[in-house]
Design brief:
Helix content is about 10%, strand content about 55%. It is mainly beta. A hairpin with a 2-residue loop joins β5 and β6.
């Protein structure tokens, strides 16, 4: 399969988007989403071709500007047809009392070129400051205005909130604000999905925003069992390991 530059830019933007919170259940439920190892792995395929993995880790709690936060770390490594080589490391800091994002730090390497991105969330003002650089100097600073609460796509997909009764909202679009866009998600139906050779009961959700996606959430703990990002270029599939 041959790719032109437009297609490769699309795939790069899509995969970077995987490494960009919606409110989480309070009372330490975040920790309970992880097993004893405090880590979860997802495998990535592109049009059926094994293309990398995403590792989630729970690091515990810290304090930022007087706020206690939960800290998550994500490491992603992706290689698509040996044309796209992307490595990303990210930390997400969530306010313990509100479960909303306080800060996101991303370290991205594309074909060896490094970029560091820092996102700072001010939920009271409804602003997100995004600072980009190469590790030595700042190259770009932007401030985005959005109606609070402002979320981050990672937590929406990977840690869908427990306080939403999906079955009572079946067929209804739910809207979430991200720094630069809005994402809509709706519960379609209950469906089984294959994970590591086993069939597991899941909620099947449809999503739309900058990218269309399908999401299968485990009925027991609402961790994603599978996520499909769909486009004219092809299908990026992210499946939970084990």
């Amino acid at each position: 399969m041959k790719f032109n530059i437009v297609q490769m830019k699309f795939v790069f933007a899509l995969l970077c988007g995987l490494s960009f919170a919606v409110c989480l259940p309070a009372g330490g439920a975040l920790r309970q989403r992880f097993d004893a190892s405090k880590s979860i792995r997802y495998n990535i395929t592109f049009n059926g071709i094994p293309s990398g993995h995403i590792d989630w880790r729970y690091l515990g709690r810290e304090e930022i500007n007087g706020k206690e936060v939960e800290v998550l770390e994500i490491d992603a490594k992706t290689e698509i047809l040996k044309l796209l080589n992307l490595v990303s490391s990210e930390k997400i800091y969530l306010d313990v009392s509100t479960n909303l994002p306080v800060k996101v730090k991303r370290d991205v390497k594309l074909f060896g070129r490094k970029e560091i991105i820092k996102e700072s969330y001010d939920q009271e003002k409804g602003e997100v400051e995004v600072v980009k650089g190469d590790g030595e100097e700042i190259t770009e600073t932007e401030v985005y205005t959005q109606e609070p609460p402002i979320h981050n796509i990672l937590e929406l997909l990977y840690f869908f909130p427990d306080d939403i009764d999906l079955e009572s909202k079946q067929g209804q679009w739910m809207e979430f604000n991200l720094p630069t866009q809005k994402v809509q998600v709706r519960f379609h139906s209950k469906r089984d999905v294959a994970v590591a050779g086993e069939r597991k009961e899941a909620y099947f959700l449809e999503g739309r925003g900058a990218r269309r996606f399908n999401l299968w959430l485990c009925q027991k703990d609402r961790l994603p069992l599978r996520i499909d990002f769909l486009s004219w270029v092809g299908r990026v599939r992210i499946r939970k390991e084990g």
